[in-house]
């Protein structure tokens, strides 16, 4: 029987949560409403100050419609502060700080996604629910399309690095001011672009954080955006001979990928444990004597599949960005392979790289990729060959990548690990002291939520309990209340989760080991 290859979610253990006492709430509410952060932050204007009770919702009526959120549920009593902070004469950030009454003494900064300008309100809520004084920003602009990058270096610099760093400097200062004590430890959590922001912070501002959770990091950012832009030129539009429908990706191609690769790990369970071992041969699907029309691929379509699963190369043959990993096609069919230009790449190239708003994404070539790499808007690339200063201060990085990521190939996180380890001259055992990378079979792009990671990085930083392996939980119908479908051990790179074989049930945690 085939398993659903949906996302794996994690149980959310709580760090610390004690109930508030009625009289304390009043005092806290008063303290909140008397807070005047703008007096302590240069060039800032206060836009929000409110006390929010557990069980309430924060209304976000000003939030850009493309951010798709007009309110956020809150599960802890907290004080919400928002500032507008100018960062240059033509740029400013929207800064949100949520201060829980039951403060654990810790500080947490959150990141963003895509090329967006959307505050990660759900992570602010997660942070305050677990006792962190938590900050987030709009990364220097509102909405998701990036048009304000156009001829505005201030906004591009905010997006590249300045917004997050500013929020940390301001956030630590205001934490001390509000609670009367400095934060004991400083953490960061983000995925995708947010993962990149975490790695970049470790490189540029090694003192900003003690612990960083960097999920599916969008490192080597310019080349990632070129890789994404290229999909439209591979698939063509929906009427092109090279185009493949979502249905064909999800049935014909996905089944053949599983047929060729699911059993490599010893367990035919619908999940490719290690996609690096899957050398998919799409030629077996070529229409011919054996194949029914509708269940086979034309020559042009076979070429599309071959390109999708091949490394992306510069014209001189060296690597631009690694191949998409097989196994992600169920989700990628409706995304990168959908026969439309990829919105965030279009915005990045039009407004930040080429500064050419009428640019036609169908014309994309490696020449554009070259411009992106040379220009490196806002210094965004993020490809450090050392994080020695961060490590030297005792900093820890916990990174993970879903092995069915349909937005950023997980092969790039392996490539980055090897690049960093090589640059620092570290063997994996040495890397383990400060940088641990977990591959999560069966998980799509940023599909896990912050829970397990935040707990693991806090334990590592504060108790020296470094995560060895993480147990992921797949809930029935991806619904926690519906109960556990199965659990799986996720191994620390370079180890991989290996089926012990025999009559064991691949859905049992004990049937696998990290080797
Ligand atoms: C972003 O939106 C906020 C309202 O949510 C507004 O105050 C701010 O000026 C906007 N920023 C930019 C750069 O347009
Ligand atoms: C901040 O305000 C000062 C004046 O108070 C001004 O000189 C400076 O340019 C401003 N900085 C930014 C980043 O806007
Ligand atoms: C904004 O600052 C830049 C340099 O930081 C300067 O060249 C420009 O004249 C300033 N623009 C305005 C409107 O003050
Ligand atoms: C190939 O071209 C890319 C892009 O111009 C360049 O970065 C790379 O160094 C080149 N590789 C070799 C081996 O010359
Ligand atoms: C899971 O969802 C399906 C369809 O949404 C439903 O038919 C089924 O009963 C659900 N299973 C459980 C255990 O909730």
TrEMBL record:
<keyword id="KW-0479">Metal-binding</keyword>
<keyword id="KW-0858">Xylan degradation</keyword>
<keyword id="KW-1015">Disulfide bond</keyword>
<keyword id="KW-0624">Polysaccharide degradation</keyword>
<protein>
    <recommendedName>
        <fullName>Carboxylic ester hydrolase</fullName>
        <ecNumber>3.1.1.-</ecNumber>
    </recommendedName>
</protein>
<keyword id="KW-0378">Hydrolase</keyword>
<dbReference type="InterPro" id="IPR011118">
    <property type="entry name" value="Tannase/feruloyl_esterase"/>
</dbReference>
<keyword id="KW-0719">Serine esterase</keyword>
<keyword id="KW-0119">Carbohydrate metabolism</keyword>
<dbReference type="Pfam" id="PF07519">
    <property type="entry name" value="Tannase"/>
</dbReference>
<dbReference type="InterPro" id="IPR029058">
    <property type="entry name" value="AB_hydrolase_fold"/>
</dbReference>
<keyword id="KW-0732">Signal</keyword>
<feature type="signal peptide">
    <location>
        <begin position="1"/>
        <end position="16"/>
    </location>
</feature>
<comment type="similarity">
    <text>Belongs to the tannase family.</text>
</comment>
<keyword id="KW-0106">Calcium</keyword>
